[in-house]
Amino acid sequence: VQSKFPDMGTTIFTVMSALATEKDAVNLGQGFPDFDCDPLLVNAVCDAMRKGLNQYPPMAGIAPLREAVAGKIAASHGRRYDAGSEVTITAGATQAIITAILAVVRPGDEVIVLEPCYDSYVPNIELAGGTVVRVPLVPHTFRPDFDRIAAAITGRTRAMLINSPHNPSATIWSREDMLRLQDLLAPTDVLLISDEVYEHMVYDGQEHQSAARFPGLAARAFIVSSFGKTYHVTGWKVGYVAAPAPLTAEFRKVHQFNVFTVNTPVQHGLATYMGDPQRYLTLPAFYQRKRDLFREGLKRTRFEILPSEGSFFQCVDISGVSDLAEDDFCKWLTTEIGVAAIPLSAFYGNGFDQRVVRFCFAKKEETLNTALDRLAKL
Ligand code: PMP
Ligand code: GLN
């Protein structure tokens, strides 16, 4: 066939996980836990199946789960979304993001992404016929550069994607950052897609600054999150989007013909399980222990350890360890040292000039220790 997308490659996560499996390497590349979820969550899903909750749910998701999501956002961020008209359950954050983009981006519309960015954003915008406008985060610190963002906004800008805690850099946006964005967008009609899948993984006593907390942002935002990250079930592929009713109405126009709806028993199980907020409130401490163990172990290596304020990622600069370009370094590390990582170049278009790779520390302590022992030999 004549390819519709001749330049579209295979996602780095597929490539690196396949190589890790082939080489029997410790996979700190693709972001997923190597430990199981709470058995109570599995029981809740199985109970729903046994009760016969196995047919199509309502298009936007079952009411108890949408209510649980609205309640969680209200408790965490002080904004009350209407469960009926403003919350939609999706097949993971991935589907939430592409559906939001398809719902609002018209051919020729400009959409701003801040690079490095998650690898689905750019192809999603292209699939919608939009024009990708790449604005780099400040090299090495990965902070937003508001002057450059301001300069990128034109009369054709339809939307902007932000992501905090950030994949891949593990930085988070401060309250001041969000206020600056709010001021910047105030005179515009630019819509916001706020990818907050790591919202419950913020460390050192800091707080996640959801776009939901800022009325001028929330009014224009699709807020996206993922149960996969929060409850250690990435393979279930269930997430949600919260957005003001007029935006949600546009979102659902696409959602109904895109997935129509999402796995029924998993929705029921999650609705039951979410009743106890401790299940997400304990997540920062749970992951901070892993982050601290991993960072402590990295001190035995010659990597430069970059900050990890949120998410389950840790980036390192490889300059002190190798002269290889980071893509080649990741392949070499997987093949020869037995540890898989993700090169940051996968999150950029052109113009990448750093030498940084990303590890995922959502792993058992023994897995992290095995990887660290191998990395210490470099
Ligand atoms: N956005 C970001 C920043 C992510 O890291 C991920 C997970 N890799 C997703 C979206 C997709 O989440 P899900 O698995 O729920 O589709
Ligand atoms: N979000 C995960 C990561 O960044 C992987 C998701 C995927 O494999 N597409 O590693």
From TrEMBL:
CDD domains: AAT_like. One of its GO terms (molecular function) is pyridoxal phosphate binding. One of its GO terms (cellular component) is cytoplasm. The keyword Metal-binding does not apply. Belongs to the class-I pyridoxal-phosphate-dependent aminotransferase family. PANTHER family: FI04487P. This is Pyridoxal phosphate-dependent aminotransferase. It comes from Ramlibacter lithotrophicus. The lineage of its organism: Bacteria, Pseudomonadati, Pseudomonadota, Betaproteobacteria, Burkholderiales.
